[in-house]
Design goal:
single chain; TIM Barrel; 10 strands; binds zinc ion; two-stranded antiparallel sheet; eight-stranded parallel barrel; 38% helix
Length: 370
């Protein structure tokens, strides 16, 4: 009797766990955090964060913005100062794998080649790739400015640019043993510039879609998937979403031109706009992304579950899940995270909180579905 009772308890526990896990997996196949890759000095702290915070919340996907923060062997000239080593990356991947977490490394391609007054490494080392070389970086950045400079872009039609960026993509995917790569490709304001000798006069949607397809095809040849942010694929005028989380610069028809296996990370931070439905109806798989408003994130979790449950069988499987995005480096995020008291979260009158509060609230909401 005693052994039978123990066996029965084990069977119940096992089936209970499997059933709970499978319900969560079926409603939210992707449960993600996107954040900058840590500095070498913070790798060990970040490993603890993975083990103690991500794994218990059943986070299963970690997008790490690496960019030039790696000791690239293929292009050492593009390394940041103080970059991650192979050993650092092995620590991160080992912790993630042990916790059932899939790491997807990110390098910003096409846009985000500068920030404020700083030119990032690709265009600093290879200025010939600059889509707008006549736009000089200001000593002190302000927005708006006469050049409409938000971030620099590389020219997608420069004959030499892909050899270099694909070397980085391949090396970082190998280092992280990744099955997917996130190329960013958000907020590309400089594209098809009228002064670019290669791009002038060309359709910006076609230029954008062709670059997505180039990156996708490069990855697909190695059995890997491409993830991108979704803003350039939404019409900022007709949706009312504006020129940042959607496009005012003619790129949005690319939604009908890009390959259907590109995964779209659809970010909306101020309101839970429901453009995930548009992407799914276009045949694209989509993840809804939040940032610093807990109430928005909680509504987005409900919406995602409802889209998944309430859609046609054809569309349902394209609603992949949720992602919390953190736009600071790891160090301030971890400081805020460990100071943040989950029992007394600080949320201001505009509903804005530290992203760590939104992260906790989002995953509290997701785990209610298990
Ligand atoms: Zn160009």
């Amino acid at each position: 009797m005693h052994i039978k009772w123990i066996l029965a308890a084990i069977v119940c526990l096992c089936f209970g766990t499997v059933a709970g896990q499978s319900k969560l997996d079926s409603l939210f196949p992707v449960r993600a955090l996107a954040i900058a890759a840590p500095t070498p000095q913070n790798v060990d702290s970040f490993v603890v964060f993975i083990q103690q915070e991500l794994v218990p919340r059943k986070v299963n996907t970690l997008i790490l913005r690496v960019d030039f923060n790696y000791q690239y062997k293929s292009h050492p000239e593009l390394r940041d100062n103080n970059p991650l080593t192979e050993k650092d990356v092995r620590k991160l991947t080992a912790a993630a794998k042990a916790g059932g977490i899939n790491i997807i490394p990110q390098i910003n391609l096409l846009g985000h080649q500068s920030w404020a007054a700083e030119t990032y490494n690709l265009l600093a080392v290879y200025p010939q790739f600059d889509e707008t070389p006549w736009v000089k970086m200001p000593a002190k950045y302000v927005w708006p400015n006469t050049d409409s400079l938000y971030c620099k872009s590389y020219c997608p039609l420069h004959p030499d640019v892909h050899k270099i960026v694909f070397d980085l993509v391949d090396e970082i995917c190998t280092a992280f043993d990744a099955t997917a790569f996130h190329a960013g490709m958000d907020e590309v304001f400089y594209i098809g510039d009228s002064k670019c000798p290669r791009c002038k006069g060309k359709d910006k949607a076609v230029l954008y879609a062709d670059e997505v397809k180039r990156v996708r095809d490069h990855l697909a040849a190695k059995g890997k998937k491409l993830w991108i942010w979704g803003d350039r694929l939404l019409d900022g005028h007709s949706t009312g979403l504006g020129g940042w989380e959607a496009s005012f610069n003619g790129t949005w028809p690319a939604i009908d031109l890009i390959p259907k296996d590109v995964v779209i990370c659809d970010w909306h931070y101020e309101r839970p706009d429901k453009s995930a439905v548009l992407f799914a109806a276009k045949g694209l798989s989509v993840i809804t992304c939040s940032w610093n408003r807990p109430a928005v994130a909680e509504q987005q979790v409900k919406d995602m579950a409802n889209f998944r449950i309430g859609s046609s069988p054809e569309m349902s499987g394209r609603f992949l899940g949720m992602m919390e995005t953190v736009w600071s480096p790891v160090t301030p995020f971890l400081h805020a995270y460990y100071k943040d008291d989950p029992a007394h979260p600080v949320i201001n009158e505009k509903g804005i909180s530290n992203p760590s509060t939104t992260f906790r609230k989002m995953f509290d909401a997701i785990l209610q579905y298990q």
